[in-house]
């Protein structure tokens, strides 16, 4: 890490915390919705809400050696997932009525938040830029991948329009913006926006990656 | 951790060790039985026995940052799983003849043991009460969940009568009993019994959680 | 660890590094091939290449408490997987034309390399011989198992002719050769060859383990 970055560890940790918690809230609701649609009971809804909300961050923390994972050491993470999943269960009539476009928009926002949080946290503990980009991607898609593995289906995020790729581009944008010397908060906004915009554009235009 | 607890680390570690090993033995036999019923060969039987017996504890240890996991650092864990899985394979005629009610009873005992061991170990390393309850639940259901993931089916424990919920209630009972100042051994027995009783009652009466 | 081993940590670490990287390259190509056969897009091909190449080593490192895993801390691991997976994608016409027998031979070589690297690394960090043998096996089969879990199918390696068993025998050979006092490099070659030979023979003769 360069000197400027080491001079503001508090601010960088705060960016990770805020982006992580905001992403956790969004993804917990999303997880609860997908579990209620699969007719799971209250426990199943809470388990899937936890997995989608916390799975990506836990995987990232295990991989970068930040042990124990923040989602275990800091009770606010699971408590937030519990509350959001519980609220989604109680108010299921309203929640299940959320339109598909709005869900995709919320999910894209969560993806951008997690891509930023994951990349920044990996950099904070001294992981190289290239691997930090991968860690940002893992943070963004990890929860959804584990949910699909638990539900015994091939992860959607490996199949749909530039999903993991959007997280990857967001993470790479963060690295690039830091190299250009932008302020930490500007880097975070730029990276999250890049991820969000690419995901929304890819859904709108049906962009796909090439096949062999 | 409070002063009283810190004064008897040896006793608390012993409770974890004994409950962990007893649960490991029970779950290794159960894993071997489910693998033999699925027509797997000797290796498959041993792998599934290991996964069911050690998967929950390994997941707990990775999540709470107890690294390396006890099941890797202490050879008695895998050796016990190896011996119990091997014995189940050799004496498969007798083992496969165990009646379903007896299997459910053994499994409920293993679940109670792991719920106690998991919660107590998380508390021992300084995890908050709320998250420790979740870790006790993960220890109880983790092995079965990983087995079902490996066998490409939706985890049974997310579907059947108050299975994970029983582990959760057992873990919560441990926390409550400690708050009330009961002796560590009394807390452990109370918590294990609560988990066991709830699981058996839920099977008998077919209790289910609500759906949205 | 005995005195002789502690005297040559550099050489032992080098054996792990070289075997790990060679296995990573072979398995990345294999992963890319299986993903291209499953009609995945460029991202899916890269993800599966990463999983098959790095999954076993990451699992081993998490289990033995070598944190963060080498595949995250050392950028050469993911860079190698990226380059090999990318080359397989670009030259897919040639790569997809590789004959089945040659693929099995390459895979058996990768399996031997990972079994050696996994066992040696576990011993290097002070894991007991018995558990180190299991860690060698996990390193060899882990990537393939995680790939199959992600693709929602029962892991092939639990079903085909002495696959995991070959890794286990290779790992056990390494332990035995070290006990006999052979030079580290001789132990590694002997163990890798034992795994490779047993795997090839089992495919040729269709050897199977017994069922209950």
TrEMBL record, chains A, B, C:
Domain named Glycine transporter: residues: 18-92, 105-177
Lipid bilayer topology: Multi-pass membrane protein
Name listed for the protein in its UniProt record: Trimeric intracellular cation channel family protein
Transmembrane segments: 12-36, 42-63, 98-118, 130-150, 156-176, 188-207
Predominant location category: membrane
InterPro entries named among the record's database cross-references: Gly_transporter (IPR005115)
Subcellular location: Cell membrane
UniProt record similarity statement: Belongs to the UPF0126 family.
Pfam families to which the protein is assigned, alphabetical: Gly_transporter (PF03458)
UniProt keyword terms in alphabetical order: Cell membrane, Membrane, Transmembrane, Transmembrane helix
């Amino acid at each position: 890490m360069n000197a400027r970055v080491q001079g503001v560890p508090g601010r960088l940790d705060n960016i990770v915390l805020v982006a992580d918690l905001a992403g956790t809230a969004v993804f917990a609701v999303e997880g609860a919705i997908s579990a209620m649609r699969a007719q799971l009971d209250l426990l199943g809804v809470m388990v899937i809400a936890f997995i989608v909300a916390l799975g990506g961050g836990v995987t990232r923390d295990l991989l970068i050696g930040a042990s124990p994972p923040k989602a275990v050491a800091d009770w606010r993470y699971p408590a937030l997932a519990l509350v959001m999943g519980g609220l989604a269960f109680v108010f299921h009539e309203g929640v299940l009525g959320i339109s598909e476009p709005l869900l995709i928009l919320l999910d894209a926002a969560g993806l951008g938040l997690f891509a930023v949080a994951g990349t920044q946290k990996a950099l904070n503990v001294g992981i190289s830029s290239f691997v930090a980009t991968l860690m940002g991607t893992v943070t963004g898609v990890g929860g959804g991948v584990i949910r699909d593995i638990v539900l015994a289906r091939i992860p959607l995020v490996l199949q749909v329009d530039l999903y993991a790729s959007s997280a990857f581009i967001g993470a790479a944008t963060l690295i690039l913006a830091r190299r250009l010397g932008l302020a930490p908060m500007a880097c975070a906004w730029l990276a999250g926006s890049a991820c969000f915009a690419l995901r929304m554009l890819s859904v709108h235009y049906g962009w796909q990656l090439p096949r062999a």
